[in-house]
Amino acid sequence: MTDIVPYAEQLLSGYTDYSDIINNDAFLPAFLLKNTGRWMKIELLYGNTPVTHIGRLYKVGVNYIVLQLEASSAATLICNIKDIKLITIIYDTNIKNLTN
Questions:
Q1: CB-based contacts of 88: which residues, under 8 Å, 6+ apart?
Q2: What CATH number does residue 84 fall under?
Q3: Element (H, E) at 25
Q4: Domain that holds residue 68
């Protein structure tokens, strides 16, 4: 049985400074971080199935986002950034415009 902790340490030992990913707009997390709180339409691809989620961007990590789903729902979506295919940032605050 392999021990996962040494493997994780090996992965992280090569790159431990994530400040570029969070501060440089060339990286998606940094760009999204500046849009925290905005309504977004996130389009993902799971296998061959496209999935769309609409919600308010709640939090951004190095490799994930947290989306608070539509206002009428108490649900939260945590999504791996590499699974995202398209992001539409909505500047119009009218939630009904997001469904078009």
A1: 40, 41, 43
A2: 2.30.30.520
A3: none
A4: 37-92
